[in-house]
Specification:
Elements (H helix, E strand, L loop, with lengths): L10 E4 L7 H6 L4 E6 L3 H4 L2 H11 L3 E5 L8 H13 L4 E6 L1 H13 L7 H4 L11 E5 L11 E6 L4 E6 L7 E4 L9 H21 L6 H23 L4 H14 L14 H13 L3 H17 L3 H12 L6 H18 L16 H14 L7 H9 L2
Parallel strand pairs: 1-8, 2-3, 2-4, 4-5, 5-8
Antiparallel strand pairs: 6-7
This protein binds 5,6-dihydroxy-NADP (NZQ) and zinc ion (ZN).
Amino acid sequence: MQNFVFHNPTKILFGKGTIPAIGPETVAFATKVLLVYGTGSIKRNGIYQQVTDSLLKAGAEIVEHPGVQSNPVLSHVREGIALAKGQKCRVVCAIGGGSVIDEAKAICAGAVVDHDVWKFFIGKKSVTSPLPLTTVLTLAASSSEMNSGMVITNEETRQKFGFANKKLYPQTSILDPEATFTVPADYTAYGAVDAIAHVLEFYFTTQDPATPVQDRFMEGLIINAMESCDRVLADLNGYQGRADLMWTATLALNGLTAAGLGKVGFPMHLIEHSLSALYNVPHGAGLSAIIPGWMRHQSQSTPQRFARFAERVFDFRNGSPEERAQKGIDALEEWFQKIHSPTSLADLNIPKQDIQQIAENTVALAKIWRIPDYDSERIQAILAGC
Ligand code: NZQ
Ligand code: ZN
């Protein structure tokens, strides 16, 4: 196990009936609130009403910034920043999934500076004193509710870039599993894929051979993500399944899994971001199209680790490490197919001829993330296997 610092300052309020706490939790920072949300689901399922009732009761003055789209875009972030500055909002409250929370973080960071917000994403500026952020999570997937990352698409340059800064953790996040009852089956599945991908990235890129605590923790999260997703897809309004999936997704990328692993990478996300940037596919759908191909590529150099994944997650104990590795990857791919998440570029209607263009888009982000071993040739080879 490597040395590490773990410091996650986000306060979590988890469970049934927790949404009415959003008012007091938010006005504890300021009363002029920028309320950020998506394209309509919270109005249909009543969460908007619950949140605004609570905010108003707590004495908040609300300025609304609706219309965040899935895979949030820079132009809309800029509109939110202009609104927050113009209306002198001093706290931001996000209600939604990863897209809404990520856009809210970008607004928090951009509303207190004079330069353009994109400079954070291309490494030209660092976040200083962002506005405080509270969230009500409505979709289990990204863990943005309890981490310091944000991912935004620049529609002009067709770049989807992610960026993290320790000042961007939400102050408080409310996780009421009932808020996710209305998430349709497809996005429920994509959310589970995303949570699994977050774990796999670190599980397969750590260079440390002796991390038993983290390994068991990560294997448990993967098994829980699959089992709870299966239960939710069988009963979209099942509280226990929704609760298990929600907390699993939050734990998958809140810093705990990586603690002690040393340097880890995020290569599947690196490539997926280009799929979202170029074709606007849902993040989890893009991931499940990349994961099996990336795993087959990577397992050639570290078959033992993939064999252990197969043994611990799928109980495959027989055969050589290479055979077990292969069986584990096949089993995960079959599970993706079972939950109707795409498992190839073809499933996403992305033609083979586009592989070079995707790779070039990915290389630009690899440079910013400082992952030099992902050059165009290697990315094209991985994509060819997808
Ligand atoms: O627009 P609304 O009405 O909010 O509808 C959304 C959207 O259409 C809908 N939805 C959300 N909650 C719902 C609901 N529909 C019915 N009932 C509910 N309770 O679901 C759709 C997808 O929402 P979105 O927020 O886009 O999904 P997700 O949470 O998967 O977020 C995806 C974004 O997060 C980024 C991704 O790149 C992507 O842009 N990520 C952020 C990360 C982070 N900050 O750490 C890490 C992740 O790896 C990921 O990259
Ligand atoms: Zn992700």
